[in-house]
């Protein structure tokens, strides 16, 4: 669901209000996700949160790179996507 919000934001870069709403939902979902996590990936998730918070206050950007980073952090999702390649 977190990546879905990033995908929506990427598709709605022309509509600033909707773009920001997508990023707000992303941040909220990520916060719920982070409260459940600990260990070696927590720092990376917090770094991604900072990147999205920066995107929220700046000019709308493409979020595909961030989506890719999130998928790389989940081996199952990464393998599923790379089977198609």
Give the key terms.
85 residues
Task: Report on this structure.
The chain has one domain. The model has no long low-confidence stretch (mean pLDDT 84). The chain is mostly helical and 85 residues long. α1 packs antiparallel against α4 (64-72) and α2 (16-35) runs antiparallel to α3 (42-57). It is globular. It has helices spanning 2-11, 16-35, 42-57, 64-72, 75-83. It is built from five helices and no strands.
Stretches with pLDDT under 50, minimum 5 residues: none
Number of domains: 1
* Sheet with most strands: none
SSE run: HHHHH
**Percentage of helical residues?**
over 70%
Offer a quick outline of the entry.
The chain is an all-alpha fold and 85 residues long. 75% of the residues lie in helices and 0% in strands. The protein starts with a helix and ends with a helix.
Q: What are the SSEs and their pairings?
A:
Layout: H1 2-11, H2 16-35, H3 42-57, H4 64-72, H5 75-83
Helix pairs in contact: 1-2, 1-4, 2-3
């Amino acid at each position: 669901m977190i990546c879905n919000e990033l995908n929506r934001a990427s598709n709605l870069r022309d509509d600033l209000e909707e773009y920001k709403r997508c990023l707000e939902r992303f941040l909220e979902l990520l916060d719920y996700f982070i409260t459940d996590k600990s260990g070696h990936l927590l720092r990376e998730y917090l770094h991604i949160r900072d990147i999205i918070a920066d995107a929220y206050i700046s000019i709308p950007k493409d979020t595909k790179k961030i989506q890719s980073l999130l998928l790389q952090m989940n081996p199952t999702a990464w393998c599923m996507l790379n089977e198609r390649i």
